Amino acid sequence: METLSIYAPRLVTKRQSLTPGHRACSGCGEALALKFVMKALGRDVIVVMSTGCMEIISSQLPYTAWEVPWIHTLFENAATVATGVESARKALARKGASLPKAKVVAIGGDGATFDIGLGALSGAFERGHDFLYVCLDNEAYMNTGIQRSSATPYGASTTTQPAGKASFGQSTWKKNMPAIAVAHDIAYVATASASYPFDLMNKVKKAIAVEGPSYLHIFAVCPTGWRIPTDMTIRVGRLAVETGVFPLYEVENGKYSLNYDPPQLRPVIDYLKPQGRFRHLTPEMVDKIQQRVNKEYARIKEKAAQ
Amino acid sequence: MNDITEIRWHGRGGQGAVTSAELLALTAIKEGNIAQAFPSFGPERRGAPVIAFNRISAGKPIRSRAAIAEPDIVVVLDPGLLGIIDVTRGLRDGGVLIVNSSKGLATVNSEIGGPWKLAVVDATAIARDILKRPIVNTAMLGALIKATGVVNLESLTQPLEERFGKLSEINVQACSKAYKEAVVMEYSPGVKKAEKVYPIEKSLSWKELNLGFVVTEMGNARSYRTGYWKSERPVRDNAKCIKCGMCALFCPEDCIHQDAEGYFEADEFYCKGCGICARECWTGAITMVEA
User: Fold this and answer.
1) What is the pLDDT of residue A1?
2) Looking at the domain A12-305, which fold is it?
3) Residues 44-83 of B with CB under 8 A from A
4) Under CATH, domain B4-185 is a member of which superfamily?
5) Binding-face residues of B in 20-49 toward A, CB within 8 A
6) Biggest distance spanned by C-alpha atoms of chain B
7) Average pLDDT of B158-167?
8) Which sequence spans correspond to the domains of chain A?
9) ipTM over 0.85
10) What's the angle, vertex CA A252, arms to CA A246 and CA A258, rounded to 5?
11) Thinking of the domain B230-290, which architecture would CATH place it in?
């Protein structure tokens, strides 16, 4: 019982940059992921946030759940505003101003990252600004009521593509956002999950240590949108990794490494079954998803082996 | 009552207040009335207090689309709301108040009695018994129909079937059981509403806001009590607790802190009762009980 791993949770800082009293749904996996991100970042940060669940729940006028400088921008331009903050600080430093040390971090949901803000994000990566972009991916527009985004996985029922007689839910595969970030040839890209907090926090620390842009893709379970009981958040997040649906890997200067590679992946049905959004899937569709997951996982594994 | 009956529903996100308002409007329309149903909620989430409204008219067109400030009927889906929101605000003299509570008519009357008819039903027990989950909206519809007669119980069956499909049968059962079990105290004129102070958050006028909506007091959300949202709370068994801190690590509210003895205690002020701590506890030391 006196092993370090049991007591590891107690080593996490108690300091809160995101305070309690925020208004996320009970059991919110995204708020949990954001909590870990903020704990790993510490206090010397400027946070730029695009519209989305985490923005709404943390900044209900006249309240704020933030204890670091924080600015809400539009849906599409968190990366652009982060660019501006970073450039302004550089310009001020050039003019002789003494500024406290701070890292610029832009945070957006999957809608802001995959769909609406992709152009702005690509531009900021291309210009090579020194900032970290964190995507909190809960696989749909949960804030406005579970509309599909290009992060929604195949077969998931959403309010804009509900499963029923005429549709089986989302008909397209999830966009491979980390690969798009890697394609910009930036120094650090990683995927993480709130169900693996130490892996997540280590990746945040690695990402902010990098000169230039870095991208962190965090899997955030949404009990409301995925139709799971609120206490299952961590379990479902773990299942996503154990089944290979969401592999944890990092790409440092183009070099892939797989952080969690079990000898045998669990079948995807273990991950799909607890979720109401996949309840309607037929065995054939589950099989189709299994094959896709196998293919994608093998691709990452092959890259990691290179 | 006026030509137009106005109903206000108080519930929590996820309990089905919005659905019940819709079902009631559909039923009223089926009976040849004109009806409206619409919700009102902020950007808050599952577990936060929500309000829904109905207007029902026998023939007079309904022109107003505004929120209802002076309802004829108020339905309270969650007993926990009685202490935190003034649910009877604006309720007309001679109106009807329907409350979900396990405390019985006399106790509820002493808490929230006034110049209105009061109906009490233990809808949570009925829902847990029949639906196997604490979703009380259909049971509350049964109690509402008994206390007010705005629609007939039989007319509700078809909208329930259309809405719930396979689950409609148990919902009809829950509805009729609540219809039978609801106890009603008739209106007695002249009774005064008890003066009570409710911990509703202060709302600022636009003149008090900073230019550009800048908030200068960092982390002031700490003063916002999200603990009201929960329907279940964690209870720790000290004999099983090994003080590992896994519960604190995975708490999305970050509201579990180590006390002087080394045990990890959830702060009831913020805890939303998600149950992650109980699920992730290595030794099974935490269980969730009714709040």
Assistant:
1) 43
2) Rossmann fold (3.40.50)
3) 44-48
4) Pyruvate-ferredoxin oxidoreductase, PFOR, domain III (3.40.920.10)
5) 42-48
6) 67
7) 87
8) 12-305
9) yes
10) 35
11) 2-Layer Sandwich (3.30)
